[in-house]
């Protein structure tokens, strides 16, 4: 009976398990909605990356067009007319190149801004991944708790089944005992009925004997009265007719008297035997009464036992029905819990498989990132070499321009002298010396060489731009791979739950620390760049100064690429200033 009452408190645990399962499904739905939001954000990031790639492709196409134009210009300058007339188209080409370089610089600034936004999105995605990891840990702990509860429910169902089997055994034993008691009771009742019938018959016989005894007693009384009358008659006869009566009459009376005495003695004997039998009958009647009382008490006791047995059977039936209902409910809950546990196990297996695949992909992504970093370093070294070549070409151009300026001054002075001398001389033809002719032809060759060197410098600048754009494309490719990796991790994680406030506090503290460190780095980089920009601003126009400030603001958003961008700008901006100075010198010439 105690074993049947044990499973009662497990119903509350089953309700708690159902409630936890409901909460789990709700949290799963919330996690799926958050996952959809993250996927939408990843799609937006993909769109941004696609736009960046399209912009990079446009820049590459523009650079290819510029390279073709420069090659055409170079070929035309080499094979075209020689003279001072080439300076104006050359200057226009240089102005176009400078404008295109300005546009390319603006595009690079925009690309860096986009890179900063992508890095910010990456940081947010990493934070989301960390929170999803914490939530997955809480999910796994809850799955373990549900698994333990399912095991406990299985144990409880086994105990309930054992209690049900024991209750069935007890019920069968009680039913067998009840049948045995009923059979014994029915046998005792039959025996009592037989005894009662026998006693009734004996009572009837005793009543008949009492009637006979009463009749014999009346006969004896009649005989005694007659005997008294006979004795009185004898006395009267003896007194009055003693003489008259004869001896025959006396003999007859004596024989009659003897017969009467014998009958009286037999009647007395019968009466004594009847009295004895009546006493025995009364004793037997008392025994029968006592037996009837005992039988009635036994029957009452058996009836009470039967009623108690009926009550116990009814209680057992009610308990069995309740136990069956609880067992069915427990089996249903166990089925639901087993289905939930199986689904959770399947999802855990899928998550483990996806985690393994993600780990493999992460390893491959790390290897690819290392390769991309190596390529970026190579491109940086190539850009540095290209910038060095460009600076060397610009220095050569400056030296050539200085020598050209001195030669031009000498030439102007000689031309003035010759013009004055020719003006003083009146003749239709102008004769020049061989030296002047050779000088003029050599000046044209030098102008062609200067144009070639300027074209080579512009090509070096274009190559540097191509290298920087290649670096940006590599970085965008790395960011794209990282975004794909984040998406894969988000798809693997999938489920998100509310993590503990302590974890939130830790994440917030880490974010605050990271933001403070970034702000310090940004302030340091801004201070350094401002000092350098102040040193360079003397050689720049106001428009260029504004562009340089905007480029600094974008560089601060990408701390990862700040060092390379600042180093590159440090080298490029003075070169652009030199290029403008060279352009102004050419125009003056």
UniProtKB/TrEMBL annotation:
Residues 1-29, 522-563 are annotated as: Disordered. Residues 523-538 have a biased composition (Polar residues). It comes from Anisodus acutangulus. Belongs to the WEB family. GO terms for cellular component: cytosol. Keywords: Coiled coil. GO terms for biological process: chloroplast accumulation movement; chloroplast avoidance movement. This is Protein PLASTID MOVEMENT IMPAIRED 2. It holds the Pfam family WEMBL. Residues 17-29 have a biased composition (Basic and acidic residues). Residues 35-76, 108-389 form a coiled coil. It comes from the Eukaryota. The keyword Coiled coil applies.
């Amino acid at each position: 009976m105690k074993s049947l009452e044990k499973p009662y408190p497990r119903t509350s645990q089953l309700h708690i398990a159902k409630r936890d399962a409901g909460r789990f499904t709700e949290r799963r739905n919330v996690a799926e909605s958050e996952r959809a939001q993250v996927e939408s954000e990843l799609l937006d990031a993909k769109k941004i990356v696609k736009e960046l790639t399209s912009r990079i492709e446009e820049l590459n196409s523009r650079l290819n067009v510029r390279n073709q134009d420069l090659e055409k210009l170079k070929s035309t300058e080499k094979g075209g007319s020689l003279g001072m007339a080439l300076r104006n188209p050359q200057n226009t080409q240089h102005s176009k190149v400078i404008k295109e370089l300005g546009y390319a610089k603006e595009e690079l600034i925009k690309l860096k801004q986009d890179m900063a936004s992508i890095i910010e999105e990456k940081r947010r995605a990493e934070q989301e991944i960390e929170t999803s990891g914490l939530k997955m840990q809480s999910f796994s702990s809850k799955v373990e708790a549900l698994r333990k509860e399912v095991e406990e429910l299985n144990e409880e169902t086994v105990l309930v089944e054992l209690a049900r089997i024991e209750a069935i055994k007890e019920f069968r034993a009680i039913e067998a005992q009840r049948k045995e008691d009923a059979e014994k009771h029915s046998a005792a009742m039959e025996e009592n009925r037989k005894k009662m019938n026998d006693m009734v018959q004996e009572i009837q016989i005793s009543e008949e004997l009492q009637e006979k005894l009463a009749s014999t007693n009346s006969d004896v009384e009649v005989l005694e009265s007659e005997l008294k009358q006979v004795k009185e008659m004898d006395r009267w006869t003896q007194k009055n007719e003693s003489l008259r009566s004869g001896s025959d009459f006396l003999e007859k009376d004596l024989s009659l008297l003897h017969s009467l005495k014998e009958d009286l003695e037999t009647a007395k004997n019968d009466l004594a035997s009847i009295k004895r039998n009546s006493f025995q009958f009364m004793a037997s009647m008392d025994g029968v009464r006592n037996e009837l009382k005992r039988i009635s008490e036994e029957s009452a006791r058996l009836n009470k036992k039967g009623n108690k047995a009926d009550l116990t059977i009814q209680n057992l039936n009610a308990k069995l029905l309740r136990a069956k209902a609880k067992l069915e409910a427990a089996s249903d809950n166990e089925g639901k819990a087993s289905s939930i546990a199986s689904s959770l196990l399947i999802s855990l297996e899928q998550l483990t498989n996806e985690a393994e695949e993600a780990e493999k992909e992460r390893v491959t992504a790390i290897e690819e990132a290392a390769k991309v970093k190596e390529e970026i370093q190579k491109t940086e070294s190539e850009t540095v070499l290209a910038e060095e070549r460009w600076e060397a070409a610009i220095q050569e151009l400056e030296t050539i321009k200085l020598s050209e300026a001195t030669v031009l001054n000498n030439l102007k002075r000689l031309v003035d002298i010759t013009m004055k001398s020719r003006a003083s001389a009146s003749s239709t033809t102008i004769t020049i010396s061989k030296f002047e002719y050779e000088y003029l032809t050599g000046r044209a060759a030098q102008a062609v060489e200067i144009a070639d060197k300027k074209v080579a410098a512009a090509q070096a600048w274009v190559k540097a731009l191509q290298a920087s754009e290649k670096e940006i494309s590599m970085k965008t490719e790395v960011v794209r791979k990282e975004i794909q990796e984040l998406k894969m991790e988000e798809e693997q994680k999938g489920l998100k739950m509310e993590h503990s406030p302590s974890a939130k506090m830790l994440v917030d503290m880490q974010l605050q620390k990271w933001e403070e460190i970034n702000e310090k780095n940004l302030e340091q980089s801004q201070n350094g760049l401002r000092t350098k920009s102040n040193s360079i601003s003397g050689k720049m126009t106001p428009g260029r100064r504004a562009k340089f400030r905007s480029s600094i603001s974008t560089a601060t958003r990408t701390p990862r690429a700040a060092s390379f961008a600042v180093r590159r700008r440090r080298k490029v901006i003075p070169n652009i200033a030199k290029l403008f100075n060279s352009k102004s010198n050419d125009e003056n010439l």
